[in-house]
Write a structure and sequence with these properties.
Order of helices and strands: EHHEHEHEHEHEEEHEEHEHHEH
Radius of gyration: 21 Å
Largest sheet: 7 strands, mixed
Number of strands: 12
Strand order of the largest sheet: 2-8-7-6-5-3-4
Length: 390
């Protein structure tokens, strides 16, 4: 029996997206910038996908969607694209639980003289809005806060944080890669100026993403070239990937109403089945949480050698179950998770974290089998009664 529970890392492209990609590869393979028939067939595919992605966000215009190579590039375009508007360093605010696609460009700006404030979070990974109010300065030009944290599943109070930022007169960006397609988002109502999303998190292909840019927000492009994507992202568009992204976004919007409660029920079932397991502590907020996301850390194990999240990933893989030890971009590293450290966990606990994320194909039987297998792995690895606190 094989069970895939790493949907926050990537999702399998759905059949409809694959068909759209095949059609683009075989029938709409022209350069979208060309004005002849072959080029215009490809351009039609790109613009259809732009409308489909805009629909997922209820964006007022498809032109507010800028296609990128993925969520990382979208985050970089948002942060560095704003920063490059200024001749002198300004002030940037991010949270202490951002994905590396935000922390890395922020660190790059810091090296060039920018002031960067990293907002603290509580033990569940949530920001106190009053901390944002206190952190704002006259030269704060951008606030970037992740919507749904990929390692611990916690949702931030984006509406409140965006309202505070907007009242101050700064721009607000959110990395919504884990939220898009899993929870409804309406950028007509949300006080966001920039929002990042990724195709392969919503059953589209890898290699495509998008940045929503509110009308009137100016960015300086990261790439120089032919001026595609409204002069903001030069380079011939990856038409097949964009086609798959578009259909995945459209279907995610249609299916969300039914899928959200189903995933929440499975999520809570897995949490409930693992409750009381010695040495295993849930991480992240229990209710302000992504609907598909389950995560834990291990306590001090009293074993001869510390047990890491990677150890559990390998053991579960041997049982035919795919989980992860944190963000897919950092799960191959042995360093403690910066996200868990920011939430107050010890270094051993922050190195012994796992994440199980559910998806379209996940069933109750999958959850039940996974809970049984994980308990057996823990009993085998940690025969000694454990402490209860991280």
């Amino acid at each position: 029996m094989q069970i895939y529970l790493d949907y926050s890392a990537t999702t399998p492209p759905r059949p409809e997206a694959i068909v759209a990609m095949q059609n683009a590869l075989t029938q709409q393979w022209g350069n979208p910038s060309s004005i002849h028939e072959w080029g215009q067939r490809a351009a039609t595919v790109v613009e259809m996908a732009r409308s489909q992605v805009a629909g997922l966000l209820n964006a007022p215009s498809p032109d507010s969607i800028i296609f990128t190579s993925g969520g990382t590039e979208a985050n970089n375009l948002a942060i560095l694209g704003v920063a490059r508007r200024y001749k002198t360093p300004q002030h940037l605010i991010i949270s202490s639980v951002e994905h590396s696609a935000v922390t890395a460009p922020a660190a790059l700006l810091e090296q060039s003289g920018w002031q960067v404030t990293r907002l603290p979070v509580d033990a569940q990974g949530r920001i106190d809005p009053s901390d944002l109010k206190d952190a704002l300065r006259p030269n704060t030009v951008l606030v970037s806060v992740i919507y749904g944290q990929s390692e611990v599943g916690t949702l931030q109070p984006i509406q409140v944080l965006g309202d505070i930022t907007r009242a101050h007169g700064a721009l607000f960006h959110t990395d919504a890669v884990q939220v898009a397609g899993r929870l409804p988002m309406d950028v007509k109502q949300l006080p966001v100026d920039l929002l990042s999303l990724s195709s392969h998190k919503i059953y589209g292909p890898q290699g495509a993403g998008a940045l929503y840019v509110r009308a009137g927000v100016e960015l300086v492009p990261l790439l120089s070239g032919g001026g595609q994507e409204f002069m903001l992202r030069s380079g011939t568009q990856a038409v097949p990937a964009i086609a798959g992204f578009g259909i995945a976004a459209e279907l995610a919007q249609q299916e969300m109403t039914a899928e959200i409660p189903r995933l929440i029920q499975l999520r809570d079932r897995l949490f409930d089945q693992m409750a009381g397991t010695a040495g295993l502590v849930p991480t992240g907020h229990r209710w302000h949480r992504l609907p598909h996301h389950v995560s834990f850390c291990l306590t001090n194990t009293c074993t001869s050698e510390p047990i890491t999240g990677r150890t559990l990933v390998r053991q579960m893989n041997m049982a035919g179950i795919a989980i992860s030890s944190g963000s897919a971009c950092s799960s191959g590293k042995l360093n403690p998770s910066p996200v868990l450290l920011a939430m107050g966990y010890s270094e051993p606990a922050a190195t012994a974290a796992i994440r199980l994320t559910l998806g379209r194909e996940t069933t109750e039987a999958d959850v039940d089998w996974t809970a049984m297998a994980l308990k057996q792995v823990l009993e085998r690895l940690m025969p000694v009664k454990l402490a209860v606190s991280c």
